[in-house]
Each structure stands twice: as structure tokens, then as C-alpha cells.
Amino acid sequence: MIKIIRRCLFKPWKSVRENRLKLMMIVALLYAFLLSLLRAEFSHWQQLLLRLGCHRTGKRCREASAPLYRIRIAFTHLWTQNSG
Description:
It is built from four helices and no strands. By secondary structure, it is mainly α. The protein folds into two domains: 1-36; 38-84, no CATH class.
């Protein structure tokens, strides 16, 4: 009887923890993908992505390096434009 009660009490929490762990793994995978886009061999894709999704005007902005937050913003803009 005690085993059944323990299973009923702790099973929902185990499920919540497992779901949270899966979500964190997905977030880590996406973050790793964004970091991989910062490598030098993907500079063409960086420029294309930033031009389409996070366009900045001005010489200083065009010559600046592409930090991670601008790539994330570009993906967000492109995702929302094409999902609706």
C-alpha cells in the first residue's frame, strides 16, 4: 500500500522534471547551433541572416562583428514572419 502511495505522489514530479530536462536539452542544442553560426566559415550565412532578419544601417553597424544576440533576433524575426 505504501509503495502505491509513493508512486502516486512522486510520479507527477518525476514527469515534470523529465519534461523540464528535455526542454533544457532542446535549449542547449539551439544555443550550440547559434554558437556554431559564429564560426568564420559561416560568415556568408551570418551576413545573409542579419541582412534579412536584423538589418542595421550605418557604416559602424555594418563593420561591427555579429554578436550572438543579433543572430538570435534575426532568427526570431524570420520565424515570426514565416509562421503566421
